[in-house]
Amino acid sequence: MTETYLKCDQCGETQSPFPPQFTCNCGGLLEYEYDYEKLGVEANFVGAISLWRYADVMPKVGRENLVTLGEGGTPLQHSKRLGQKLGLKRLYFKDETRNPTNSYRDRCASLIVSNALELDYSTLICASNGNMGASMAAYSSKAGLNCQILVPKKVDEGKLAQMMIYDAILTEAGEILDESIERAIKIVEETHWYQATAELNPLAIEAGKTLAYEIFEQGVVPDWVIVPLGSGGTLYSIWKGFKELKEFGWIEDLPKMVGTQSEACPPVFKAFVEGSETITPIGDSNSIALAILVMNPIRGRKALSSIRDSGGRVEAVSDSEMLNAEKRVAKLEGLFVEPASAATVTCLEKLLDMGVIDDGDTVLCLLTSSGLKVPGVLQVLAKKRKAKGVALNLSMKSQILRMIEFKSSYGYEVWKDLEEAVTLQAVYQHLASLERKGFLSSAKKGEKKFFKITTKGKRALKAIEDLKHL
Length: 470
Known about the structure:
Number of strands: 16
CATH class of the domain at 76-100 and 205-376: Alpha Beta
Oligomer: single chain
Helix content: 40-55%
Radius of gyration: 25 Å
């Protein structure tokens, strides 16, 4: 068996691999290292594609202690409809929503809980803003271990419900994930419980890198990999996996890594744009993308160096852009993902518009978690459905007003802009109604009757916008 050890990324000091530690005495981050020349020869992947198929390239866990719910082996979806709209023939989604608790964190939980069981711990502690907590709760339940989860004030209710149904003990700790993590460090110092927080356990990186191995074995070596970026560990782990594949001589070229952050909390994006090596904590907690809401990312520096070394980028996207992308992915590909996952699609669209990504490139977007875990989105959709019968005409009239707000238009042109969603006759009826009520005015130009918005119409649109924020 190839030797495995922990190595500091600053001073180079090596340590025993277990129990997993995340920092060196010098303050550097510890990471698992191997004799890669030997590992590339010895690695033997056996069985169906899953997390544990890649046991030979992860720190050893005795087979009798494996805790698994069937994680990994998730589909690599070739996006045909959305790809066609974007002009990309080779767009792929790595669909991690198909894991047992519907997120990519099941990979980490399986390896970490197995390690805790092997080291004879009875209690684990995990700071999480959602997905990792749900995964740890499920796998701890499977192993019969006590699971203590520290959560920030804002957590998606669907993920919270998962933690509760798996019988984890929940404690609120701080406003944001960063504060929960700080508390988890102090508790372990006091109790000597097993540290299962993904940001504080280097096994999470080793589990995450299996995504690269799976993607490779599923027949794709992308030019670009776009990943939601919070604490930085996920992006870095995938980069590490691809680097190992190149080290073994199994691939020739490395992908360019792209991280996408919320505009509300973009510390890595800011450092990237400024050309800085230092990541300064910034942001607030006002975003729907709670999964990537991390002000002081522990692995942010590793993610930033991965992005720069690969020739990649970091982009920041708005909540509205994420929600719109979420709907497009669902409508065109049948995949319902959380806002942080949909951020990868918005990021891709931006990079295409800027000419950074070429239409001949192979692009992979990582979809980390299901939209079913974020009931806030479901509530918005439910309200729209409930109101549909009552407010259909209002909705159509407001769409027409928006179309005419900045340029005058005539009936047939409006109908085409609506993509023929209603009949041409209905469009003319709506226009006539809006004109009678003073929201539009009209003037003849040749054979066509052009409509333009009035001051009253503009006030109506502003009132509709204000109502959205109630």
